[in-house]
Amino acid sequence: MIKQVVLSVVSFFLLLTLAAQDKQPVQFSFNKEDKGNGEFILHITAKPAPGIKLFSIQKISGDLPVNTIITFDSTIKKYLADSVIEKGNLQTKTDAAFNNAAIKFYTDSVQWQQKIKLISGDSIRIIGNINYYYQKGESVESADQRISMQFEYKSASTEISKVTTATNPDSEKSWFTLLLRGIGAGLLAFITPCVYALVPVTVSLFLKRSKTPKEGRKNVLFYAISIIFIYAAIGAFASIIPRTFWNNMSTNWIFNSFLFLMFLIFGISFLGAFDINLPSSWANKLDSKSNSKSYAGIFFMAFTLVVVSFSCTGNFVALILGTSGGKAGNFGPVIGMFAFGFGLAFPFIIFAFFPKLLTVLTKSGGWQNALKVTLGFVELAFALKFLSNVDVAKNLRILDREVFIVLWVVIFTLLGFYLLGKLTFKHDSELPKNDWGLQYIPIPRLFLAIASLAFSLYLIPGLWGAPLNAVSAFVPAAGTQDFILYSQSEKTSASGNNVSLTSAALPPVKYVKRLSNYEPLAAKQNNLTIYYDYKEAQAASKVLHKPIMIDFTGIQCVNCRKFEATIWSDPAVISKMKNDFVVVSLFSDYDDEELPDNEKFFSKALNGQVVTVGDRNEDLQQQLIQASGQPNYVFVNSDGNLLVPGGYGYDPTKGAKEFAAHLDRVLEIYKKQ
After folding, report:
1. What distance in Å separates the CA atoms of residue 190 and residue 349, rounded to the nearest whole number?
2. Residue 498 — very low, low, confident or very high, per pLDDT cuts 50/70/90?
3. Which has the closest alpha carbon to 174: 324, 26, 359, 306?
4. Spatial contact of 106 and 90, defined as CB atoms under 8 Å apart
5. Are the beta carbons of 621 and 632 closer than 8 angstroms?
6. For residue 593, what is the DSSP state?
7. CA-angle at 465, arms to 464 and 466, nearest 5°
8. Residue from 472, 256, 253 nearest 384 by CA
9. How many other CB atoms are found less than 10 A from the CB of residue 548?
10. Which of 243, 298, 304 has the alpha carbon at shortest distance from 278?
11. HSE on the CB side for 95, CA within 13 Å?
């Protein structure tokens, strides 16, 4: 039966394909001819269907614009030699439909040829469009055909070196991190009022309406699996979106503005200003279908839970989808949402298999609203992070480092006061009373208050330039801070050998005004010269006779900020970077500045056009180590040849000592050349 269904579906789509092909007025084919020495011919063959007249690229007499037009993308015009040549059995005929103008057309086939000229090492994709006109009976219509073909020229003398693919430890472990993060978020969502209060009634309902305890446990298990499946399906839908989309979205100011507004609204809602619910009609329709005792009814019960708990779980879902996109081989959203569903559903299974635990289950009440308010404060803090991303993307300089930090200090101080009972909100109940009738602070609440107030005090030195390594991945870059109290340049400078002064003859120029805002605090404190253009770094390397340390990074890369805060700040590391290397930071997400037309090209590694500075940096990383994760530290000589295979990526298990040893190995190899 299944085989017959599959064959029927395949046959149906095959017939659709054949029917679609029959309806095409003109069939196109493309091929290339290698003439040698970098000269190629792009052949475009067009074959009109019977009864179709395909107009030539030659203009007809008069002012009627019905000739075929072939255009190429502006970024590849420098590779085009001569103009398009047309070959075929050209026919000319006066037509009354065109005011007796002489039209030029083909009825069998026509070939257009475009000469391509490349130099050694070029790898480009010729992109263009054919806007063709054709006549069918008395009707004249137009259509478009896209041109896309890859050309590559490597001369016999070109040296081809195989580069070991860089291993990104963070990428390899990201799936495990996503699992833990998702399960944690699911467990946290479970104890929110929207879900927690439903546990006793849901589990009891399954156990009571089932004929045997075994059947009841089986139904609860299916209920939990349904919850996991629904959330995993949401993640699967997000996973079909290409990885490049997530990379672009993570730095897109519109997407970050959306996340900022979402977290701001949820945060204010959790503080008690208003409630957020999906339309009640959705829940009512699902609830009506869940009355059945069948598995379908149980599934709709799970679906009902997902819908009615949205006001408490929506922010967790948004956070997981927003931070997992493009990770773990683009399966990040599936892993994250599966784990979230598991964390949310697992307690239902526990209470079903051990129903006596329901009797000792803490009653919902004031403690849950306190949890909601606490989450509301945390949501406001996260909202500022996304607003900071917008500020960085648009270079507004409104939410600089010190402004961001002081807002966090206020938020977590207020949270501490709230947990101590000094602030109350709309839905708060009174604190519990002790044996003497006096209100007291529960121990968990007290410890949370201590943690919140201690965190606020920890942040305060950051207002004067302290590194704040624990949260360096979240706060804006040190380059945006107006005032830094102290500098360590005297501590780490090598005796009498100041690279900043030595490099003064070759100062960084390109992109400095914008990208120096994201200069790491350790670099700023130690007067480390950083280039932001690869060619400038190569020129400096040739003059200073030092290897190049390429820091492939990102403006909004969280792990990059962690690495800079924990590794760059080490005196031994920053001293080697300053005195023994030419450091260049290449931002893969710097897309605000577009390259000139003569510098744009098609990247085979990225399978797309290189249009911005960030695109070019990402292409270089792919060319050198065939890896796209950041941070990645790659070491080359002034000619761009790798000194060690692969790159040095972020690994939380390795510290400054390991990176310093890696720098020593690179220097040793460089000195032997």
Report:
1. 13
2. very low
3. 324
4. yes
5. yes
6. S
7. 105
8. 256
9. 23
10. 304
11. 20
Instruction: Tell whether the model's pLDDT for residue 4 goes beyond 80.
Output: no
Quick check: 146 and 129 in contact, CB under 8 A?
A: yes
Q: Which two tokens stand for residue 196?
A: 């927690």
pLDDT score at 384: 92
**Structural domains of the chain ordered from first start:** 25-152 (2.60.40.1250), 184-364 (no CATH), 366-464 (no CATH), 487-672 (3.40.30.10)
Name the pTM for this structure. 0.53
290: exposed, middle or buried (C-beta count within 10 Å: 0-12, 13-18, 19+)?
middle
Chain centroid to CA 496: how far? 44
Between CA 638 and CA 78 the distance in angstroms is: 28
pLDDT tens string 175-191: 777 788 888 888 887 77
Tokens of 317: 């879902």
Neighbours of 413 (CB within 10 A): 17
CB distance 528 to 522 below 8 Å: yes
3-state DSSP of 132-192: EEEEECCEEEEEEEEEEEEEECCCCCCCCCCCCCCCCHHHHHHHHHHHHHHHHHHHHHHCC
For residue 93, what are its two tokens?
A: 């005929």
Strand partners for 29: 45
Q: What are the helix (H) ranges across 395-518?
A: 401-419, 443-459, 489-492, 499-502, 512-515
Cβ neighbours around 507 below 10 Å, total: 12
Residue 137: what pLDDT? Answer: 77
Which amino acid, one-letter code, is at 284?
Answer: N
Report in angstroms the alpha-carbon separations of 459 from 27, 78, 400, 478, 518: 67, 54, 15, 14, 20
Q: Is the pLDDT of residue 471 over 90?
A: no
Q: What is the pLDDT of residues 397-442, one digit of tens each?
A: 888 889 999 999 999 999 999 999 888 888 777 777 887 878 888 8
Regarding beta strands 582-587 and 530-531, do their DSSP bridges make them parallel or antiparallel, or are they unpaired? Answer: parallel
Report the relative pairing of strands 123-136 and 582-587 from DSSP bridges.
unpaired
CA atoms within 13 A of residue 260's CA, in its CB half-sphere: 16
Q: Could you tell me if 535 and 550 are in contact, meaning their C-beta atoms sit under 8 angstroms apart?
A: no
Return the higher-pLDDT residue of 231 and 201: 231
DSSP states of 636-668 = E-TTS-BSSSS-EE--TT--HHHHHHHHHHHHH
In DSSP terms, which residues pair with 135 in a beta bridge?
53, 140
Whether residue 571 is preceded by a cis peptide bond, meaning omega within 30 degrees of 0, is: no
pLDDT tens-digit series, residues 342-394: 988 888 888 777 776 666 555 555 666 787 788 889 889 988 988 988 887 77
Question: DSSP code of 433?
Answer: B
Residue 417 has a pLDDT of 94
d(CA 484, CA 522): 11
